[in-house]
Amino acid sequence: MTSQFGAMVRGLRLRAGLTQEDLADRSGLGVRTVRGLETGERADPRVATVRRLADALGLAGDERVALFATAGFGKPSGPVKAAVAQDPLLAEVPGQDAPTEESGHGGESGTSRRDRHGAWVEASGRGLGDGAEKTDAEARPGGSAVERRLADAADELAHAVRVRWQREEEQRQIHDPFPLPVRWRPVAAALTDSWANVRRARDGAAEPLDLTGCLDQIVEVYRRIPSGRLVVLGQAGSGKTILTLRFVLDLLRTRAPGAAVPVVVGLGSWNPTTTSLRDWLIARLRQDHPDLDAPGPGGSTLAAALVETDRVLPVLDGFDEIADGLHRAALEALNATRLPLLLTSRPDEYAAAVAGTDVLTAACGVELVDLTPADLADYLPRTTRAGDGGGTAWEPVLTELRDRPDRRASANLAAALTTPLMVGLARAVYSDTPDHDPATLLDTDRFPTREALEEHLLGNFVATVYRHQPENARFDPDRVQRWLGHLARHLRGLGTYDLAWWQLGASLRLPVRMLVVALTAGLILGLVDLAVEGLLVPAAGMYPLLFGALFGAVVGSAFGVAYGLANRSGRPEPSRVRLRVRAGPARTGRVGSRFRIGFVVGGLLGFGYGLAREAAHQLSFGYGKGLLSATVDGVVFGLVFGVAAGAVAAVIARCEAPLDVKSAGGPTELLRANRTTVLIQLAVAGPAFALAVPLVTWLVVLLLRWLFPGGMLAGLEFSWSPVFGVVLGLVGGLVAGLGYLLSMTAWGQWLVFARLCLPLAGRLPWAVSAFLDDAYRRGVLRRAGAVYQFRHARLQDHLACR
């Protein structure tokens, strides 16, 4: 009954033009509760919950009775069924006796299907991209403003995805001279769901679908699947990523306006035990497409709204790359959703997950097959120029494979070159470098096994592309191997394949990173204070140096601790906002959170500033105002710095807006955008803080003089001068701004670790960004949204072991 209830709630919500957040607000329920009820994850809703939903949806009469009946509180009568069936959305509710519509591809494509336990559950019809279905906004004349906005957002996302993957396809030379053949066959029956579930057949019986095809037919094959769920299995390097890329581009080419957008996401970073699939998809969309962080309906983000309304078709690449021990949980989490999807994996990892839990519900599967010697003979000669005799350097090798296939050399090489990955490496090492003879690959003394050949190709790829390309003048090939090896080991230590520039420092242990941040911040901020106070407030003796050292130690330690606390709950990621003059829509939670953080950090800095002044005075001159006075100063400065920092942080939060998608189309663009954002934040916050500090200090001093006239508090005197206020403001603004940059921002960590610490240790070059971009252009790295990845996981593993 709960699956019927969830489907009906969703239909009523869509009819009302509401998002899940809107319905939650109207009903007084949590968003997770609404989501769980719609997906069936929350079983047996209470009568009070159903009543709240009915009131929020404005239901009356037969519709209200039907909602309670599907929740198990009563039984719908014939008139109720008839009334519900009159609504095209509610007619889709499982359990109604609506006839199944015939699919244009020869199978049932009704609006519901039977799950593995025999219950009827809703199946999303959105996302096949063939233009046969209309979106909510198109289906209703004049659609609601929410629907039109989401349709526009989906169209903008589709454009961004298309541009990004077209460039990536060109970068990977997939069409140079033509794509390698990628073919597949159906997987074993034990790895797929029943055809009745795949075809959404009501009677429990259905014929198998024809899943045969090749690379340019992947969308056609996918559209034959009524459930919209396909698993693609293949060995390492067999062409799974090429297939997903072609799937996305071909599907977008025929996508109807407003329809679901195929989005490729690597599964390696997903932890299904802590994050649901939908929440993780939302986070990835916000990371890779910062414009989707804009406010959406009901106070959520556009990313959340697109995912929740099934306007995103997940293309989940690399099920096998999920951390060890989480594959079963991942498969269970995938089965908890009804999203159409395309999933890729190596066969062994997927088979093990299926054996431990269940198949992917309503999904069929195909397995990529090996390349043949005939494929090699057709492809490799066309990747290099012909010699004087008209033949190419590959001719002797291909002749040997064709005429003597039983020889060990031929058998080993044919086995090694069965995947697009190895063929691509062989092309890079031998076709693109005329001084390399591919006949070497037939030497069984050097390469007695298939594995030896593969290691040879993996081991020579990096050296080849750096030594034999004209752009190699900037980076020494020998050092490149060491730098890439460090990056590969860094990723292995993190358990991921995503090379994010803001996480490069994570290769060091957290205590080491805290110490590095503390020393860097302490040195820089101590020098800043020495320069400012030395110029504006000349002092005798060693006081300026002592105060600069003590203050640097205090604030450096504070920001080191702040860095550690920030990294315990998750590493700071790039800010995906820009500042605008006009305030954006109020987000009370964000503004309040920023004020609290600013108040705490500012308070600690102010308190440390007051104590450091007294300690420096005692050490320099042998006397001071005493511990009580120093404590009062610390409290006053802490209050001043805290209020000023909190107020400035809150104002900036109100002026933040999501980045434009063009500002962060890839890792380099995101780095530049984040740098600009942080510098603008400092340019605004620094002067604002510098003005706020002396003003608040003056007001506090006046208040203390009024509360304790004549030094009533243990003889303390509360003094104030304009020069002191200016110095305090400048020191506070510079220290708070630079400390925040170095310890709390992604770009600051990039500066501290990637641009200073790791190059000093010889683990990375000084020009890290240029090095990563150069490795991408040479084909060693690839881009996957806002992060880099190695060309292939096998190349990363090979470099990590060197």
Number of strands: 12
- Strand residue content: 5-15%
Range of helix content:
40-55%
For the report, how would you describe the main beta sheet? Answer: 6 strands, mixed
Low-confidence stretches: 79-142, 660-664, 712-717
**Counting H and I runs of at least 4 residues, what is the number of helices?**
30
Strand arrangement, major sheet: 3-8-4-7-6-5
Overall mean pLDDT: 78
> Gyration radius, to the nearest Å?
32 Å
Number of domains: 4
Q: What's the overall geometry?
A: flat
Structural class: alpha/beta
User: What is the CA-CA span between the terminal residues?
Assistant: 57 Å
Characterization of the model:
By secondary structure, this protein is of the alpha/beta class. It folds into four domains: 2-98, lambda repressor-like DNA-binding domains (434 Repressor (Amino-terminal Domain)); 136-368, Rossmann fold (3-Layer(aba) Sandwich); 371-445, no CATH class; 504-759, no CATH class. Helices cover 54% and strands 6% of the residues. Strands 3-8-4-7-6-5 form a six-stranded mixed sheet. A two-stranded antiparallel sheet has the order 1-2. It has a two-stranded antiparallel sheet with strand order 9-10. β11 (781-784) and β12 (787-790) form a beta hairpin. α22 packs antiparallel against α27 (722-744). Mean pLDDT is 78; it is low at 79-142, 660-664 and 712-717.
